[in-house]
Design goal:
Blueprint lengths: L1 H16 L8 E11 L5 E11 L3 E5 L6 H8 L7 E6 L9 H6 L3 E4 L11 H6 L3 H4 L1 H5 L5 H13 L15 H14 L4 E5 L7 H18 L2 E6 L2 H7 L2 E6 L2 E9 L2 E6 L5 H10 L2
Parallel strand pairs: 3-7, 3-8, 5-6, 6-7
Antiparallel strand pairs: 1-2, 1-4, 8-9, 9-10
Helix pairs in contact: 7-8, 8-9
């Protein structure tokens, strides 16, 4: 009997040794994460959330609620004061070489967009290829032909065909956002982070930008985490929406058909959820 057990164990071990990687549906996991800029006041308090690969996850809240801080934690620009974060099995930390190498797979669009206003659309987009071509070649504007062709293809994809040589400062607000999206896509990311990318845009332009991101997400199987101030817009495009209030996640909902699905309401009543949703209409 003992020998039979040993044989079974050996067979199992042999099979297991052939497996080289572990895959997961969860790309981002936060467990009881708190964050502070001054070691006294917490911008985020005990945040727990899971974000699946290939989904669109929105974070909604008022100014100063901690939404942007959450994105900074995910991309390693800031370390948590408490708790644990994993992004594709790695702890985000810019001080770690392994994570810095992985950073090229995270496309980050800040509120300011981060465009260089005095260079062309094409050159701004090619900045996304920096990890592949190196800083010196980028500074000398020595871009490989295949990267230039890829950048032009992405510029066309985001609806800026014919504007490759136009300087960034000459663009409209919506066009600048398209360039920022194109630059992020040029990184060939698995994760796209966008901070208030449609703020200050009219409804028509905001919808165009969100449609563009949704299309890119489907084409490239991206995971998107986006900060919004508009609950209606977030629920229209996101699989799940987390509501942040005074640094805490008080709600997590989604829409399926004509129903609001409650994933985590905490102490929020059904009536309050509906009021929150309808007040944004």
């Amino acid at each position: 009997m003992f020998l039979n057990k040993l044989k079974k164990k050996s067979i199992h071990s042999s099979s297991f040794s052939k497996l080289s990687t572990i895959d997961t549906k969860i790309l981002i996991q936060m467990n009881n994460v708190s964050a502070s800029y001054d070691a006294k006041n917490f911008s985020l308090k005990e945040i727990t959330l899971s974000i699946e690969k290939g989904t669109n996850y929105a974070i909604v809240g008022q100014s100063g609620s901690g939404k942007s801080t959450l994105l900074k934690l995910i991309n390693g620009m800031m370390n948590p004061s408490k708790g644990q974060i994993k992004v594709d099995y790695q702890t985000p930390d810019m001080n770690k070489k392994q994570f810095r190498r992985a950073m090229s797979k995270i496309g980050y669009i800040p509120q300011s967009l981060g465009l260089i206003k005095n260079i062309s659309v094409l050159e701004n987009v090619l900045i996304g290829a920096l990890p592949r071509i190196g800083r010196l070649n980028s500074f000398l504007k020595k871009f490989p032909e295949n990267e230039i062709l890829e950048a032009k293809k992405i510029i066309q994809l985001v609806g800026l065909r014919g504007k490759e040589n136009r300087k960034a400062y000459m663009l409209s607000g919506g066009e600048k956002r398209r360039v920022a999206i194109a630059r992020a896509l040029m990184q060939k990311p698995i994760l796209l982070l966008a901070d208030e990318i449609v703020s200050e845009l009219d409804q028509v332009t905001a919808k165009e930008i969100m449609d563009l991101i949704a299309d890119a997400q489907r084409r490239l199987n991206l995971t998107a985490v986006m900060v919004h101030h508009d609950m209606q817009l977030a629920l229209k495009y996101a699989d799940r929406v987390a509501v942040i209030k005074e640094g805490q996640k008080i709600l997590e909902i989604g829409v399926e058909g004509d129903k609001i699905i409650d994933f985590q309401s905490g102490n929020i009543s059904q009536k309050e959820i509906m009021e929150l949703y309808n007040n944004e209409s």
